[in-house]
Amino acid sequence: MHETSKAAAVYAMYEAMGPERTYPKLAAALGKHSGYTRQIETWASQFHWQARVQAYDEVQRERERQQRAAADAERARRKLERELRREAARDKMDDDRAGVFGAEWVKALKAINNKLADGDTRGLMGLVSVLNRALDEERLSLGSPTQMTAIMGKDGGAIEVVNAHDEIQRRLASLAGANRASGVPERTD
User: Fold this and answer.
1) Is 178 or 59 the better-scoring residue by pLDDT?
2) 30 occurs within a structural domain
3) 94-110 pLDDT, tens digit each
4) Is residue 63 part of a domain?
5) Cβ(122)–Cβ(86) under 8 Å?
6) Angle CA(160)–CA(166)–CA(170) in degrees, nearest 5?
7) Which domain holds residue 33?
């Protein structure tokens, strides 16, 4: 049997109602009485509406997934573009800063050398401060650290890790032994 145009139109409306669709809701949307649901059920059975709407719903879910994926990809692309623009701006700023401060430290170094050559020590500390600031700015613009901290053990060797409680007990015992050897009475409180 071939689906009539009336049944096809009712099916199209049913399909468009989305996943929350029911035959009673369809009858109400058509402005029909509740008994009309029997006619809808007959068409639905004859023309396999449930299988068709399941396939339709799956296509719609896939379309929504693709739209979300495309929107996510677009957001990621825009974010990457923003990050690249920021990075390019930082690089330009760093290049500009390196040019300015690079020239500044060369001037400061020449001024220091001139003062030393003339035997004039007045204002040297200010020039040294300018030189240090310029060098720090240049290092920063090149992505280098301006300070480094090194932790070393005795005589530049490895760091000795000691259990503090055990070390305190050892030192107390050593002090107590030294006190006994020297005749200092031990406290008993």
Assistant:
1) 59
2) yes
3) 677 666 666 666 777 77
4) yes
5) no
6) 100
7) 5-74
Say if 140 falls within a structural domain: no
Token pair of 99 as six digits: 């040019």
Query: Which amino acid is present at 170?
Result: R
Span 111-127, pLDDT tens digits: 777 877 787 777 777 77
Rounded CA gap, 36 and 48, in Å?
18
Helix, strand, coil percentages for the chain (3-state, nearest 5): 75, 0, 25
Q: Determine, yes or no, domain membership for 81.
A: no
Indicate the pTM of the whole model.
0.45
Do 65 and 56 touch, CB atoms closer than 8 A?
no
Q: Which of 45, 50, 56 is nearest to 16 (CA)?
A: 56
Helix axes 49-118, 37-46, angle to 10 degrees: 80
Number of domains in the chain: 1
CB-count burial class (<10 Å; 0-12, 13-18, 19+) for 70 = exposed
3-35 CB burial, b ≥16 within 10 A, e <16: eeeebeebbeebeeeeeebebeebbeeeeeeee
The answer to whether 101 touches 138, Cβ cutoff 8 Å, is yes
